[in-house]
Each structure stands twice: as structure tokens, then as C-alpha cells.
Design goal:
This protein has 365 residues and is an alpha+beta fold. Helices cover 41% and strands 15% of the residues. It has 15 helices and 13 strands. The strands form 4 sheets. It has a 5-stranded mixed β-sheet with strand order 9-10-11-12-13, with helices on one face. The chain has a 3-stranded mixed β-sheet with strand order 1-7-8. β7 (245-249) and β8 form a beta hairpin. α7 crosses α8 and α10 (203-216) crosses α12.
């Protein structure tokens, strides 16, 4: 079985994540290919798509949100993701049990004794009017019936687990600050989420395996589980295994992949890329060593914005006074600094509507 080293996996990841060469894709197709973008920070998906698409217009993503072709919803790992409406409808039921368990993992004691099916029915009755509500407003509407848990546990369980909900615009629009207002997916998109298969065949699980590998492969089953948060996919993997090819990584783990998916040569040049906070190119794996050193792994969950240099996390970045400030995490060569500076100037222009192209790179450590 062919062994893929970290550099080979890195180049495959960059290619699948549209980070090796800028992609000429419509925004909706890019969101679908990436299986959504993590989006608890509302402006970060715009940066993620700017880094991946050759001619990204942020207004196009805003239009998709207001046009109801993409939605912001709790899905993979109980994290807010920006996904296509079609994927939200198709995937949500498959995530229901995981979403409940993740909320209970935080609020089990507060929600002890609460019949969750009864709570869900009461929540659906309140939201049946389709009116947008904050989480606290929804929780307060049911607090008289369930006073013991408190509004936060009730609200979290209702909004992120029991009732398929979306966060409505203007939340998530380009350069817009807005609080979270939730409405049922069914009222916003005009149809209920797809019901789970009754014959145990799990077509959604099989689709998730294929889609994940297209966007993240080659990858181990543990990587797939880390991305979606679902523990019940071994049967789906078994069902599609004959469609897949297998490799090993340097640790001996089996890696699965689609046979015709791109796996560029390890020596393929990789341009500098500026990634947003919580980018799934990093968070979408259990073993993130293909793209980030263990010493810097904490950055990926702390909300740091990072710069890929030669395909790996090599710096952090932020913006102050319309200037992109880059802080290297390792020694950056002169050629690499030139590449980072060029990309940083383009990013500064994107974020400022062309008013600034300033970038400052701190001395390498």
C-alpha cells in the first residue's frame, strides 16, 4: 500500500481545499464543494472564499444568503456552518442525535428530567409562526413550563439541536453587524428537512463520506469523524469502500480516497495563503499534522487567523488601521516574505475596498 508522507498529504489537502490554485468557481459551487465553511465568526467565510477563488465578489455571498441559497446553521460538530440550502436540508436529520448529545455534554445536569421530545414539540409550536427570534426569546417563551434549567440550556438545546433552525440575514452579510435571529429551516426555505432513511441504508452517511473525501481526502476515518462529529459512519464507509482507494500515512494509518481526486506531486509549489479564523482546512482533521505543527495546534482552536507558507501554517495575521500585520511563527526566507507581502497587500485591498494595500511583516523568530 502506497505511503503518503506529510508533504504529499499537504499538497492533496491544498488542492481539495482550492488553496493550491485559485479556483474559477461560482460561489455557490465553492461552498458546496467545501462541504460548507465554519462560520461562527460571521465575516470569516468571506476571507476563506477570497483566499480560494480567483475573482471573489463578497456581494455574491451576501446575495446567496438573502436569496436563501445558502444558510447559516448548526451542523457539523454543533458549530455554526455556512452551507448550501440543499445540503442543510439533506444533512440535518443525520446530525440530530449528535447535536442533542453535544448539548447534553454541556448541560446534562441542568436538563436532567426534561423530556426532550416534549420540549421540541413545545418549541415547534412557538416557532410555527415563522417569526425570527433570538435564542433567549425562544427560551423565555417556554421558561414558565420549564423554569429549572434556565434560559441558556433551554435555548441552546432548542436552537442548535431540537429544532432545525437557521440564522437569518442580516447576520452574516458582508460588513454587517447583526445579532442572531433564528427561524425554522422549514419556514425560511419552504420545506422540511429530508427525513432519515427508514430502511437503514444511510444514503446521507454515504454521501458525507464521498463529499468529505472530495474536499479533504485522502483521510482516515478518524479525520472524517473529527470533521462532522458523527460517530456512526463505519457502516457508511463499509458501504462505499469498493469505490475508494487506500493509502497509508507515515504513522501507518489507513487513508481512504476517491480514485480520481487530485493528489499533486509533493514538490508542487504552494503560494502563500491567508486563512480566516477556524478554517476547516485545519479543523477538518483529527490528525492536523499535514498542515500545522503540533507546537502551533492550539492556534487552530483559539480563533487565530493564520498564513500558509509553502502549504503549512507559518504565521498569524490581523488587521489594524487598514494594515495587514503578519507575525511569523518560523524563519521566513526572503522569497517567502515577498510572496507573503504580495498576498497581504491583495488582502488589505480586499478588506478596505482598495483604500489600503499596506502590509507589515514582523521579523522572523
Amino acid at each position: 500500500m502506497t505511503v503518503l508522507d506529510a508533504r504529499a498529504l499537504n499538497r492533496a489537502t491544498l488542492a481539495r481545499q482550492l488553496l493550491l490554485d485559485g479556483a474559477d468557481l461560482p460561489v455557490l459551487d465553492a461552498v458546496a464543494h467545501l462541504c460548507g465553511l465554519q462560520a461562527q465568526e460571521p465575516q470569516e467565510p468571506f476571507i476563506g472564499l477570497w483566499s480560494r477563488l480567483r475573482a471573489f465578489d463578497p456581494a455574491a455571498l451576501s446575495d446567496l444568503l438573502t436569496g436563501r441559497s445558502v444558510v447559516r446553521t448548526h451542523l457539523m460538530r454543533r458549530t455554526v456552518h455556512l452551507v448550501t440550502a440543499d445540503d442543510a436540508l439533506a444533512w440535518r436529520a443525520r446530525h440530530d442525535a449528535m447535536l442533542r448529545q453535544r448539548v447534553l455534554g454541556v448541560y446534562r445536569s441542568e436538563l436532567a428530567g426534561v423530556d426532550l421530545d416534549e420540549l421540541a414539540a413545545a418549541g415547534r409550536a412557538v416557532t410555527a409562526d415563522g417569526e425570527p427570534r433570538s435564542m433567549s426569546e425562544l427560551a423565555r417563551a417556554l421558561a414558565d413550563r420549564w423554569p429549572k434549567p434556565g434560559p441558556r440550556p433551554l435555548g441552546e438545546m432548542l436552537v442548535s439541536a431540537l429544532i432545525p433552525m437557521v440564522q437569518l440575514p442580516p447576520r452574516g452579510l458582508w460588513r454587517t453587524r447583526a445579532g442572531v435571529r433564528n427561524a425554522p429551516i422549514s419556514s425560511w426555505l419552504g420545506r422540511e428537512v429530508d427525513p432519515p432513511a427508514q430502511d437503514g441504508s444511510d444514503p446521507v452517511g454515504r454521501q458525507l463520506v464521498r463529499r468529505y473525501l472530495a474536499a479533504f481526502g485522502p483521510a482516515a476515518s478518524a479525520d472524517l469523524r473529527a470533521w462532522c462529529g458523527l460517530a456512526g459512519l463505519p457502516a457508511a464507509i463499509t458501504a462505499v469502500r469498493e469505490e475508494l482507494v487506500s493509502f497509508r500515512d507515515e504513522r501507518g494509518r489507513e487513508l481512504l480516497d476517491l480514485p480520481d481526486a487530485p493528489r499533486p506531486a509533493p514538490e508542487t509549489p504552494a503560494p502563500a495563503r491567508f486563512l480566516p479564523a477556524f478554517d476547516n482546512a485545519i479543523l477538518g482533521y483529527h490528525d492536523r499534522g499535514r498542515i500545522i505543527d503540533d507546537a502551533h495546534r492550539g492556534l487552530s482552536v483559539a480563533g487565530a487567523r493564520v498564513v500558509l507558507v509553502d502549504g503549512r501554517v507559518s504565521a498569524t495575521w490581523k488587521v489594524e488601521a487598514d494594515t495587514v500585520l503578519v507575525a511569523p511563527l518560523r524563519r521566513i526566507s526572503r522569497a517567502e516574505r515577498t510572496d507573503v507581502a504580495e498576498q497581504g497587500r491583495e488582502l488589505a485591498g480586499f478588506l478596505s475596498d482598495g483604500d489600503s494595500h499596506r502590509v507589515r511583516i514582523a521579523a522572523s523568530s
